[in-house]
TrEMBL record:
The keyword Membrane applies. Residues 1-20 form the signal peptide. This is Uncharacterized protein. Keywords: Membrane, Signal, Transmembrane, Transmembrane helix. The chain crosses the membrane at residues 213-237, 381-401, 433-454, 496-523, 529-546, 586-607, 619-646, 763-780, 792-809.
């Protein structure tokens, strides 16, 4: 027995010596784990048919098999708690070729990141094992356990006869068995796969799987995407939010020269004395109406004035207008308009319910709240949640698939005394519940609550400042900056001529910091927006004394600015001044703008993590499609056909409405062709955004009918308005388009919902045909072993048949055309114009002249015949006459109820809340309009 033991020890020492010599002969990335032959311990699968299952998988063309080993007599984590350099001894991989081994270079969650595309040809087997003698596997070290499992897998679960000097191998020379190891990379834990195989001579060769060049390029590309997101994140915000051409724009409606357009206006502290529903506007809601405000300051209280108009200026939101070649008939646009913008409430069946009070006939004590307002509020909340869905999805993916793996790696690295490297993203390195992420969540939540608590007027001021910063960031000429840099760089040649070559290089070196700062400011949106917000914050907080010092410094530095041509840059910058704000408003402005800056960077940080993750998903998916093209090509062809069907079906609907819209707009423009042509021929610098009114025949409704809705003066129009901007681009009302399509005339496309439903029905029929054809192709392809390429070609050829029959054999077909000269069309079109009404917010009212109407009503209400503010802006009204005034107003209203023509007014300006603070603002801006245009007669 002693002699046998000595022989075994000598043989073991000899094998270890040979293995170490082999390891020395490998290159720097080759790591040959110790192959200690422990003949006293053997592991076998519980199911003897495991090897047969593996053979069947290999016959199906599997390129990689993942083994999850489990010993029934041991706890589940027995293999993963042995320590050592091995990581997860329960998880092993068998690769069939180099393509499969390349998957081991990727992220461990490559299946998730590739949306399953890289999982094609990869199978997972759970193998139950047992050891002989019982308990021997638990006594082995991690290194010996790894060697024993590796040997078992290399021999494909076969019984190993250790008495033979060279056992028969099972795996081919190209097949490898791999397991993950932990390497010490300068104090950081590096998790790499170590793959082993037998060469033709039966020598075990092991090598670490390291990233190739293209994998490093992929990693660098992901990092580059993150940097771009940080630098250009403001460009992710849609331009419709802040650009002038997409926000409310000022349009001018000029009255006809041959017609006199007048309105009646009264200024009073007792608006309830006037029987004028929807005519009362409070004085604090007309702050931006400079011309109209100037006229009101010269009017007397409780006097009715007849005002002759020259120019009515409208504030028109771009989303209410349509271009000539664009119609809002997409499916997503239809759903957005009907549900997000709550236009579904205008349908005949839902309108009574949507206008009903949510409390029904009950009276809980507050005003009426219709159902459509609740729906709009609910949809706004849904939109906010939808904006957060990508990040919520990212958190769910982390907690479901990545958290356990990341935590286990950190525990292993900590046990080995190593640090964990940066895990591709802050989400993996810190977790989404780290303090930094929690601070971002809190900042965004608090900022939203603060914004919601602000008054509507202050919100508008804040949005105006924010839009100006975004607008300047987007619209400031980058070409002008390049022109400035070129002019400054050529200064040596302008001053010294050819001798400038001597000083040009030192000159450029000296000015390089200035060039760098200017280019970074103008060409990197994130820096640009942040600096503009900080400058705006400084303007609001800067005291008057410091402002004067800045002006003095600017005047003194003017010569230097001229030499450096900085005036060329500064002349295009225009920041909003703080104006007349109280200390409370200044503090709120400071808090809000500072919150915007912090929220902006918080959103940028979250967007960087979220977008880079989905970019990585796209890259991995594309790689999976490419490396498994033999399988994915058939599915790609089906997706291609689906896209073609969608474009063909819904594109047909779009063309139908677009053709109708072009005919209608051409017919409308013919009505005002002369006026539009004259306006369009004017110089672009002098031309204003103009409104033209198209009336139906025999229209008896007034041209200008003012009303007050939601506290805003609006123009209730009869007929149709054509909007012509400074660039001679005509715009038309979106509301009129949807009413015109329902005209009862042959050739009108009809309601949009009807066409969309018909399109979905047609698309469903095509889907049924395509599904049937794909099933047939795949079924016969498997039976007759048709290649994937031929199956793809057959699918495409068969799927194109409906499109070919519709567009080739069935003829192009012609949609019904509109005959705009027919009697029926003219009658329907005039009826539509006659019914059409739409209200537009009034930006300002520009009068030509006005006069006081000496009616019985006015004389009864005239006590002191004074303006409602004096020269200093103080209200002119005797306090002891308030009761008498109110009594006389009520009496006068009763006596003149039958005299409608004298007492009827178009607009009642309520000055009952004319406080001292508001008086100061009103007087300060009283001369904002043109006094020369106000001539009393």
């Amino acid at each position: 027995m002693c002699r046998g033991t000595v022989v075994q020890m000598v043989l073991g020492w000899f094998v270890a010596l040979v293995s170490s010599n082999i390891a020395v002969g490998l290159n720097s990335t080759d790591q040959a784990p110790s192959k200690t032959m422990t003949i006293n311990c053997t592991i076998r699968p519980v199911d003897a048919s495991v090897r047969d299952k593996v053979v069947r998988l290999l016959e199906t063309g599997v390129k990689m098999i993942e083994y999850d080993l489990k010993f029934d007599d041991y706890p589940d984590r027995v293999l993963n708690t042995k320590g050592g350099m091995s990581y997860r001894l329960s998880h092993w991989v068998r690769t069939m070729n180099s393509q499969a081994r390349s998957l081991l270079m990727l992220n461990e969650n490559y299946e998730l990141l590739s949306l399953g595309a890289m999982r094609i040809g990869v199978e997972t087997m759970e193998v139950a094992m047992y050891d002989e003698p019982d308990g021997c596997i638990g006594a082995l070290s991690a290194q010996d356990t790894a060697a024993l499992i590796r040997e078992t897998l290399l021999y494909d679960f076969k019984e190993i006869d250790r008495t033979q000097p060279k056992p028969t191998k099972s795996l081919g020379t190209a097949e490898h068995v791999c397991n993950m190891y932990v390497r010490d990379d300068d104090g950081y834990a590096s998790f790499v796969y170590n793959c082993c195989h037998y060469d033709p001579d039966g020598v075990l060769i092991c090598k670490d799987i390291v990233r190739e060049v293209w994998m490093n390029v992929l990693v660098m590309f992901t990092v580059f995407i993150k940097i771009l997101i940080v630098l250009f994140s403001p460009l992710l915000i849609p331009e419709k939010v802040y650009l002038k051409k997409f926000t409310a724009t000022e349009y001018h409606y000029y009255t006809k020269a041959q017609e006199k357009k007048t309105i009646r206006v009264v200024v009073t502290r007792f608006p309830e004395s006037f029987d004028c529903a929807n005519k009362v506007v409070k004085i604090d809601r007309i702050q931006s109406m400079d011309f109209f405000k100037t006229m009101l300051n010269t009017m007397k209280l409780n006097k009715i004035y007849e005002v002759e108009l020259n120019d009515l200026r409208l504030s028109v939101s771009q989303h209410r207008l349509l271009r000539e070649n664009c119609v809002p008939v997409g499916v997503f646009r239809y759903l957005y308009n009907n549900f997000c913008r709550c236009k579904i409430r205008f349908t005949e069946t839902l309108k009574p319910c949507c206008d009903q009070n949510i409390c029904g006939n009950l009276n809980p004590g507050f005003g009426m709240v219709p159902w459509h307002k609740c729906l709009r509020t609910f949809m706004k909340l849904i939109q906010i949640v939808l904006l957060a869905v990508p990040w919520i999805l990212r958190i769910l993916i982390y907690t479901s698939f990545e958290h356990d793996s990341i935590t286990q790696r950190r525990e292993v690295a900590h046990a080995m005394g190593l640090k964990t490297p940066f895990e591709r993203s802050f989400t993996l390195h810190l977790t989404p519940f780290h303090g930094i992420f929690l601070i971002c969540y809190i900042i965004l939540a608090v900022d939203s609550l603060v914004y919601g608590a602000l008054t509507k007027a202050f919100q508008e001021k804040f949005k105006m400042v924010l839009r100006d910063c975004f607008r300047d960031m987007k619209e400031k000429s980058k070409l002008g900056v390049c022109s400035w840099a070129m002019d400054l760089a050529l200064v040596p040649f302008d001053s010294l001529g050819i001798l400038g070559f001597i000083l040009v290089v030192p000159f450029w070196i000296i000015l390089s910091p200035l060039f760098s700062v200017v280019f970074i400011f103008y060409f990197i949106p994130t820096i640009n927006l942040t600096m503009r917000l900080l400058i705006q914050l400084f303007i609001f907080l800067c005291p008057l004394s410091f402002t004067m010092r800045c002006k003095i410094f600017k005047a003194r530095s003017e010569p230097m600015n001229e030499k450096l041509l900085l005036n060329k840059l500064s002349e295009q910058e225009n920041f909003r001044q703080k104006g007349d704000l109280s200390k409370t408003e200044l503090f709120l402005q400071f808090v809000v703008i500072l919150g915007v800056i912090i929220s902006f960077w918080s959103l940028t940080f979250l967007a960087m993590e979220c977008i880079s993750f989905f970019v990585e998903v796209g890259v991995y998916t594309l790689i999976g499609i490419i490396i498994n093209a033999d399988v994915t090509v058939r599915y790609i062809s089906v997706i291609f056909l689906l896209v073609l069907y969608v474009r063909d079906c819904f594109g047909k609907v779009y063309k139908k409405y677009l053709n109708f819209y072009k005919v209608i707009t051409s017919h409308i423009l013919e009505h005002e062709k002369d006026k539009i042509t004259d306006t369009a021929q004017a110089d672009a610098m002098c031309q204003e955004n103009t409104v033209f009114r198209v009336e139906c025949e025999n229209n008896s409704k007034p041209d200008i009918y003012l009303m007050v809705r939601d506290g805003i003066i609006k123009w209730q129009t009869s007929g149709f308005l054509v909007f012509l901007d400074q660039e001679d681009t005509p715009y038309f009302s979106e509301k009129f388009f949807f009413e015109a399509v329902e005209m009862k005339y042959h050739g009108c496309p009809g309601p949009l919902y009807r066409n969309i439903f018909g399109t979905f029905l047609e698309f469903f029929k095509l889907i049924l045909f395509l599904s049937f054809f794909v099933i047939v192709v795949m079924a016969f392809g498997d039976v007759y072993n048709i290649s994937s390429t031929n199956q793809m070609l057959a699918t495409v050829a068969g799927g194109l048949m409906p499109v070919i029959f519709r567009h080739v054999f069935a003829g192009k077909g012609t949609d019904p055309t509109l005959n705009t000269d027919s009697v029926q069309f003219q009658a329907e079109f005039n009826a539509t114009l006659r019914r059409f009404q739409q209200s537009w917010p009034v930006y300002d009212i520009v009068p030509i002249k006005y006069r006081e109407l000496h009616s019985r009503y006015s004389m009864a209400a005239d006590l002191d015949k004074e303006e409602f503010v004096d020269g200093n802006g103080h209200p002119r009204d005797a306090d002891n006459n308030n009761d008498v005034t109110e009594q006389m107003l009520m009496t006068s209203s009763t006596h003149n109820s039958s005299d409608k023509n004298e007492s009827e007014v178009d607009l009642v300006v309520d000055v009952s809340n004319f406080s001292e603070r508001f008086r100061a603002k009103f007087v300060a801006n009283a001369s904002a309009g043109s006094m020369s245009m106000l001539q009393d007669i």
